[in-house]
Amino acid sequence: ELLFRLKNAISHDGGATWEIYPDPIDVGSSNDSRIIDKEWLAADLSDSEYRGNLYVAYAQIDLTDTTYQILVKTKDAGATDFDTEPVRISPEDMVFAQFTSIDVDREGVVHVVFIGAYLNEETLGLYHTKSMDGGATFSSVTKISDLHIPCFSPDDTGNDCIIAGIDKSRVYSCNHLRVDKSGGEYDGNLYLTWTANGFATQDTGGLDIYFSKSEDGGETWSQPVVVNQDEDGESHNFFSSIWVSPDGKIAISWYDRRNDSNNVLTDYYMTYSADGGASFVADFSLTSSPTDFASIGSQNNDFGVGEYNEMIGTDYYAIPFWANGNENDGNIEIFASFVPLSASGMVGVERISQIKGDLTLNNLYPNPASNFLFVDLSLAHSSEITVEIINSSGQVLKAEKWGALTADQLLKKIDISGLPEAIYQLKMSGNWGTMSTPFVITR
Length: 443
Prior knowledge:
Blueprint: E1 3-6, E2 9-10, E3 19-20, E4 26-29, E5 34-43, E6 54-62, E7 67-75, E8 87-88, E9 94-104, E10 110-118, E11 124-131, E12 142-147, E13 176-179, E14 190-196, E15 208-214, E16 225-226, E17 237-244, E18 250-256, E19 265-273, E20 284-285, E21 291-292, E22 310-313, E23 317-324, E24 333-340, E25 351-354, E26 359-365, E27 372-379, E28 383-390, E29 396-405, E30 409-415, E31 422-430, E32 433-441
């Protein structure tokens, strides 16, 4: 018997250590052909009577008749475990339901979005429902939009479903929901992003990142718009993530292939909005070099890249996380970037690094620089380091190799006197991975 356990853990020390709850939230089994899948968790941080509640939304798949349900379970603030019985939120006559996303607004209302289709429908739809009683009951579902996605549409044929580096079973809408909890002008707005190449039918050869919002608690939704600004309907843009800052800015990030006509080399892009989604700043790349998705994941039995990207942040930064493989050796690493969010719409990336603690960049100065650049760094382990200075076109204009540096705090000096005034990326690579951060040369 193969068991599918949905479990949860809690940390009381900021994530340094974790305690796994002994009882699972739910259990699926190969014996009863029940699979639980695509789970997402949300916490109620409101001042409502439900403050402290935890909610998990997930899909249940019955393999005997290939039916789907979207379920929600609640753990009350004072309870030890989640509810024994889940609440079904997908309609009984909906034959396909998958891919949940969940969030809680400042009033304690629980919002869930998922993908669904009724019997004999040839078009998938995005649906929203909400609970105003702490997850005990949910409203009737509201349709947000039709969507067309390869691998999940009746009119797909062979090549329509082939996206380099993505397993066919993982080409999906990646719909993410977030609520504005800022208390500001756009407080309570619901924001949704997803991957598709059209609505009721295929509109473009490539995938795009769509965005819609609701200003009335999910009762009505705006006409979806495409967020990526490449104006190339053939390039693939997929697996977006969304986050809303404490002051109400909306940040969206995604994989992007606009720079490769072969639809293989992939960067990671981002944009943000400071006006409630009415407009977005010019989108920009977070990566200093692309990943060859024809080889990514070849070290994990060609599973390819996964789709569980996420974005968090602070008062001043958006912090997206994504899987990357720009060393193009088949390995996949997890990267994060610190992106300042400006009310004026200025764009830029402060730092990109792998999620490892082996190297710390303490300081890069002066910045702006003129003739010399000083790099103050700390190494947890000795390592050789390759340093590259890369221009905005991705060209390496200067490269140095620093020998076997010892595990210590180090100060290195780089001569940049021969480089023209511009914005550059300083990329450092070693046996611990890579890190990239921008700097400016002015004279």
